[in-house]
Design brief:
This protein is mainly α. It has one domain. Helix content is 62%, strand content 0%. It contains four helices and no strands. The N and C termini lie far apart (32 Å).
Length: 65
């Protein structure tokens, strides 16, 4: 089974008008919570770039970080 989970890099590559459809697709595929958990884990990464990308991705999805 192929995972539809997105990473921060993918989320940051989306155009602003693609975000709502992306979120709907994640929810329909039942992987949105997995994607969110992954991004939240990255917020505590020792890799500064990964941490910043996760923070930017979450903000882009409409969450305050």
């Amino acid at each position: 089974m192929q995972s539809h989970q997105a990473d921060a890099r993918h989320i940051l590559s989306l155009a602003e008008d693609e975000i709502p459809a992306f979120i709907r697709g994640q929810i329909e595929a039942k992987v949105f919570s997995t994607t969110m958990k992954s991004l939240n884990r990255e917020l505590f990464s020792t890799d500064i770039d990964a941490r910043q990308m996760a923070q930017t991705a979450l903000t882009r999805l409409g969450f305050e970080v």
